[in-house]
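I hope you will forgive my troubling you with a question about protein structure. The record follows directly beneath this note:
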Amino acid sequence: MRRPFALAAATAALTLTALTGCGALDKALDCARTAEAIASSVDRLSQAVSTAGNDPTQIEESLTAIDKELANLKDSTDNADLSKAVDDLSKGVETVRTSVKNGDTTPDIKPVTDAATEIGKVCTP
């Protein structure tokens, strides 16, 4: 009688470990996907800034897309390094947004690109 119980307990422990591992892997993959989406949004922001004379609304649309991805990422993490990188990117986005509202058609987006790079590093599985 002890063997089946021990076997069942061992199987349950392995299953729990596998599920926990998969959960961590899924979270890392979600983070990586979101980081990729943020990188795409930052690329669009860079392009929008370089062509702001043609269509200044593209900057705001790019900033909004970054905000959306940041909200997704904030909801899915409890990692301190990632939280800091997300906060830094949020601050950079707000700085760019303020510059644009104040009439700057070629705002400095380096804080945004730097923070996005850091998110990419933190989210690399």
Notes: The two ends are 43 Å apart (CA to CA). The chain has one domain: 27-123.
